[in-house]
Amino acid sequence: MKSSQSKRVSVDDLEALVRAALSRAGMAPDNVGPVAATIVACERDGVKSHGILRLAGFVHSLKIGWADGTARPAITSETASLLSVDARNGFAQVALDVATPRLLAMAEASGVAVLLTRNSHHFAALWPDIEPFAARGLVALTCVNSKKRMAAWGGGRPVTGTNAIAFATPRPGHPPLVWDQSSSVLSQGDVLLAANEGRAVAPGVGCDAFGQPTTSASDILDGGALLPFGGSKGASLAVMVEILAAALTGGRFGFEDQSPAGPTTTSFGGQFLLLINPGRAQSGFDERVSVLVAAILDAGASRLPGDRRYRQRRISAAEGIDVDAPAYASLLSLAGRSGGAVAQTGGQVS
Amino acid sequence: MKSSQSKRVSVDDLEALVRAALSRAGMAPDNVGPVAATIVACERDGVKSHGILRLAGFVHSLKIGWADGTARPAITSETASLLSVDARNGFAQVALDVATPRLLAMAEASGVAVLLTRNSHHFAALWPDIEPFAARGLVALTCVNSKKRMAAWGGGRPVTGTNAIAFATPRPGHPPLVWDQSSSVLSQGDVLLAANEGRAVAPGVGCDAFGQPTTSASDILDGGALLPFGGSKGASLAVMVEILAAALTGGRFGFEDQSPAGPTTTSFGGQFLLLINPGRAQSGFDERVSVLVAAILDAGASRLPGDRRYRQRRISAAEGIDVDAPAYASLLSLAGRSGGAVAQTGGQVS
Questions:
Q1: What is the mean pLDDT of residues A332-340?
Q2: Is residue A345 scored above 70 in pLDDT?
Q3: Is B302 exposed, middle or buried (0-12, 13-18, 19+ CB in 10 A)?
Q4: pLDDT of residue A267
Q5: Is B249's CB within 8 Å of A281's CB?
Q6: Which residues of B fall within a CB distance of 8 Å from A247?
Q7: CATH number given to B7-184+228-345
Q8: For chain B, which terminus, N or C, has the lower number of CB atoms within 10 Å?
Q9: How far is A115 from chain B (nearest CA, A)?
Q10: Confidence check: pLDDT of B148 > 50
Q11: Of A80, A151, A155, which is closest to B80 when you measure between CB atoms?
Q12: Nearest-by-Cβ selection for B303 from A153, A253, A301
């Protein structure tokens, strides 16, 4: 994927630039870390659709006051297994960061922890939210609702977000097994990437503003609707996410998002997270996951979710990350740097 | 759908016959109720694929000793929010019945209840397991793994079950909003029904024993594999179900099911159930669900999941259930009745 126009940057240097850009946009020092981490994780792992491509959206949302970079999340209620957090118009990653010590304590004591975050912005991939929990031995399920972009149950107009769901499980001797998927055939990020590159998308991905099928990524983004994967089955998942992440949390539904039109503002909704501690449930869990993964590979699976990310992560750690030149220039500009200091002309990624 | 060969039977009479059939197959009196209820609920609500069509499978599994109709479930561990149950080779519905009082108490106290059932047979629809919880005001998510029938993540051979997931939420002024869907394009029950009727299934539903695409329901059932809905996305859900319902519970994976070949034995695996009490999370939940449903309908949704079931349920309560003659004869035979006493020649269902 590397072009001669790309720049190679180390993971640490990329993180410093992203942090600088968020700080420069008005984000409070305590809040910068969790948001920068999720953007850098995606770029580092080759998930370009959710990497620094999205930084401008974060920055824009902060600058126009749509999201509050200075808000500190408030814990509004707590039981033995249920934690409700009001992100107060800040980012979901900050709320998760604040909630994490309590969630870990709940999972240790009762075996179960549920986080309900409301009034939160989530504009990133979901897997970075849960991979760390699985790395600590917990099974994790999470979902976020997002601004309306998708039709449901045979409707022709958008009503739910693409409403991603992510799941992670520990896997002994390996990084966690993690998947993260939107409820749409294609994620909003991928459609955005296609539109930016002038590429068409496959039939079945979406419809235009008149409810007609189209392969134009721009037409889908411009007043049309994405379609759920698996027809009504994907729609069922998306509606479940609206219930879990918005109705239960007290957050806004996808169709209540009042953000300025266009893809450059963050989605304001809620997040649901479930953690289960296998140690409180049944012994031998780790070994059982190994048995399952072996059987899946033996049945001919071409690859496991996350394989590509983990491979790219190792390459990025060893050799740095190739960022294409326009994205890099934008990053430098957002970070207030004149450029050149941390950049090198990239070589071939092997 | 009614033919002149069908018999009309009341819901109560159908339940009496199903109970008699299960008792006659050796099921203990305390265990009959929850299993009969799920079979009757499907037949009553028009879900023929999971109604009395499956009774012969239950009975056969009991008679050959594959499932134990006399087993009483054992609670093996309990925290503030997590209950582990060993069904001891009995039916999952019996384990759920035994667990329900404790789950309700957990949901009341901590807002969250998780049930992990292992060593259980589940051969029925999932929605009857959770609709009652939603009718009591709880949000419910459940899944069961089942014997291997489906390929995963690009593999050509079966490794997971069709691994159904069901979700239910209270809906003020209406019966709960409930969906129940397999992780395959088509459920095993629907493929079985197609095979019984000699019908072909749509392309993409499955492959044959050689991993080749086929539209023959029989070829899919006979050593082939079902395919997940949404490609890798449906496979991700199915693998998650193996983790939640088997690895976490201590149950068997789909590929470890050692049941005799063919569709006439029950699946031996585990069940995961999550309950969340909106009353412990956020006020105004019910009203928010109403707002969501109104928006979905306003965006052109053709119908809500469950609509057809609830409509058929009202008809069945008022007019009885039309059962086709061969199924009815089989039911009478399994129940040890000579026939005629509770049957009437059916009229037209309006």
A1: 83
A2: no
A3: exposed
A4: 85
A5: yes
A6: 169, 278, 285, 288-289, 292
A7: 3.30.1370.60
A8: C
A9: 10
A10: yes
A11: A80
A12: A153
Residue B235 and residue B334: Cα distance in Å, rounded?
37
Q: What is the reported pLDDT for B335? A: 97
Q: Residue B212: its pLDDT value, please?
A: 87
* Per-residue pLDDT band at A342 (split at 50, 70, 90): very low
Question: Is position A122 annotated as part of the catalytic site?
Answer: no
Shortest CA gap B300–chain A (Å):
4
A274 neighbors A113 (Cβ within 8 angstroms): yes
- The CATH architecture that domain A6-184+228-345 belongs to is 2-Layer Sandwich (3.30)
Which residues in chain A have their CB less than 8 angstroms from residue B236's CB? 167, 179, 181, 305
Strand B82-91 to strand B112-122: parallel, antiparallel, or no bridges (unpaired)? Answer: parallel
Chain B residue with CA closest to A204: the answer is B230
Q: What pLDDT, in 10s, does the model give residues B243-276?
A: 999 999 999 999 998 887 655 788 899 999 999 9
Phi-psi map region of A186: left, alpha, beta (phi>0 left; psi -120 to 50 alpha):
beta
Higher pLDDT, residue A265 or A3: A265
Task: Give the residue carrying structure tokens 């980012």.
Answer: A91
Burial B256-289 (b: 16+ CB within 10 A, else e): bbebeeebbbbbbbbbbbbbbbbebbbeebbebb
Contact B113, B106 (CB under 8 A): yes
The active-site residue, picked from A6, A49, A120, A182, is A49
Mean pLDDT, to the nearest integer, of A150-174?
94
pLDDT score recorded for residue A317: 97
Kindly list the residues from chain A whose CB atom is less than 8 angstroms away from the CB atom of residue B84.
281-282
Kindly tell me if the per-residue pLDDT of B348 is higher than 60.
no
Q: Cβ B110–A81 below 8 Å, yes or no? A: yes
- The answer to pTM > 0.90 is yes
Q: Is the pLDDT of residue A343 over 70?
A: no
Residues 6+ apart with CB under 8 A from A166: A126, A127, A129, A130, A140, A141, A142, A143, A178, A179, A180, A181
Residue A68 exposure: Cα atoms within 13 Å on the Cβ side:
12
Mean pLDDT of A42-65: 93
Residue type, A204: G
For chain B, what are the domain ranges?
7-184+228-345
Record: contact B242-A299, CB cut-off 8 A? no
Structure tokens at A243: 């219930």
